[in-house]
């Protein structure tokens, strides 16, 4: 399990973006909605490019908690590596306040990606989340 | 062994010109150290009895770089991956710009070889580069380090910068010494 915390700037639409799966999923580099099955659940895919190689994870993203007053939301991701044995699951907790937002991520990754070692996974995940949260203010 | 005086014309038919890249970054384990062949190039080495009157000119096609080998990485490089790397080299790194080297001064290295100084044109810029040419066992060899950012090139990176090609790449030439013309 890798746990990471990030603070990020917000814009006027950030809460609406986080709670709209069709808007928030494409903010993840390589991520796309395959099918929105309900306002709270979507089938999604993420392609992680590693130089010439790439790994594709497919699965579901669910909005499992949403508190509009406290501006707190939890997204749960469950995915499997396409053509492989690995998986990538995560729970992402967003909290917005007047000054910006925070994101706590708890992720479990197995398979080829995990074979790089926890330190490498943590570095890549950290960079991916920084890129993702950097887009939330303007998405 | 000294390089006999004469004019030597070299190219891919009888010699190899290779580029060697190394991977870096937190996720370097995912990447490969590459050996890349330049498949379209020509060089003329003129060796004079007085080494100071010697000269070297080389030109190469940026679109002719082909991946020969990849070491390391989580998975072996396949045809699809090598094709993707070659496309990135053409379109993102070298951008199909002319590659040329012209010596400005040549001197004896004191051991029968030559020390060559000159300017390398790459990515639209000219940067001074020096290296040694030696003959060992009938082979003419030389090696130079090219710093990509010195030429305004952006070294390739992926995974949000956690996997990258290191800035310095090594260029090597190896040729069975042909008879001089």
Describe the 3D structure.
The complex is a heterodimer of chains A (139) and B (181). Chain A has helices at 14-18, 21-24, 118-136; strands at residues 2-8, 31-38, 41-50, 53-67, 72-81, 87-97, 100-109. In chain A, a hairpin with a 2-residue loop joins strand 6 (87-97) and strand 7. By secondary structure, chain A is α+β, with helices and mostly antiparallel strands. Chain B is built from 1 helix and 14 strands; from the N terminus they run E-E-E-E-E-E-E-H-E-E-E-E-E-E-E. The two termini of chain B are 19 Å apart. Chains A and B meet through strand 3 and helix 3 of A and helix 1 of B.
- Total helical segments of chain B: 1
Helices and strands of chain A, in order, run as: EHHEEEEEEH
Cα distance spanning the termini of chain B: 19 Å
Radius of gyration computed on alpha carbons of chain A: 14 Å
- SSE run of chain B: EEEEEEEHEEEEEEE
Based on helices, strands and strand pairing, what is the structural class of chain A? alpha+beta
The Cα radius of gyration of chain B reads: 17 Å
**Quick check: average pLDDT of chain A?**
94
Give the spatial strand order of the biggest sheet of chain A: 1-7-6-5-4-3-2
Q: Report the principal-axis shape of chain A.
A: globular
Low-confidence stretches of chain B: none
The first-to-last residue Cα distance of chain A is: 29 Å
Beta percentage of chain A is over 45%
Biggest interface found: A-B, 19 and 22 residues
Beta-strand segment tally of chain B: 14
- DSSP strand count of chain A: 7
């Amino acid at each position: 399990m890798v746990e990471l915390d990030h603070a990020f700037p917000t814009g006027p639409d950030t809460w609406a973006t986080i709670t709209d799966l069709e808007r928030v999923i494409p903010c993840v580099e390589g991520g796309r909605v395959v099918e929105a099955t309900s306002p709270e659940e979507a089938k999604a895919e993420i392609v992680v490019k590693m130089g010439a190689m790439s790994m594709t994870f497919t699965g579901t993203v669910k909005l499992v908690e949403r508190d509009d007053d406290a501006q707190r939301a939890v997204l749960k991701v469950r995915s499997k590596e396409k053509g492989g044995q690995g998986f990538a699951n995560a729970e992402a907790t967003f909290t917005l306040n007047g000054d910006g937002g925070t994101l706590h991520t708890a992720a479990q990754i197995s398979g080829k990606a995990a074979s790089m070692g926890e330190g490498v996974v943590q570095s890549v995940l950290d960079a991916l989340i920084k890129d993702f949260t950097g887009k939330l203010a303007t998405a | 062994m000294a390089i006999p005086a004469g004019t030597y014309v070299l190219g891919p038919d009888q010699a190899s010109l290779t580029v060697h890249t190394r991977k870096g970054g937190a996720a370097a384990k995912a990447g490969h150290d590459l050996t890349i062949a330049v498949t379209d190039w020509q060089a003329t080495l003129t060796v004079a009895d007085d080494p100071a009157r010697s000269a070297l000119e080389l030109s190469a096609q940026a679109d002719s770089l082909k991946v020969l080998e990849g070491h390391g990485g989580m998975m072996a490089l396949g045809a699809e991956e090598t094709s993707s790397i070659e496309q990135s080299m053409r379109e993102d790194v070298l951008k199909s710009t002319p590659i040329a080297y012209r010596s400005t001064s040549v001197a004896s290295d004191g051991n029968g070889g030559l020390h060559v100084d000159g300017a390398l044109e790459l990515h639209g810029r000219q940067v001074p580069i020096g290296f040694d040419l030696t003959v060992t066992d009938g082979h003419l060899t030389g090696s130079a380090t090219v710093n990509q950012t010195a030429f305004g090139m952006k070294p390739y990176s992926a995974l949000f910068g956690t996997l990258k090609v290191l800035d310095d790449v090594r260029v090597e030439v190896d040729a069975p010494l042909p008879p001089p013309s």
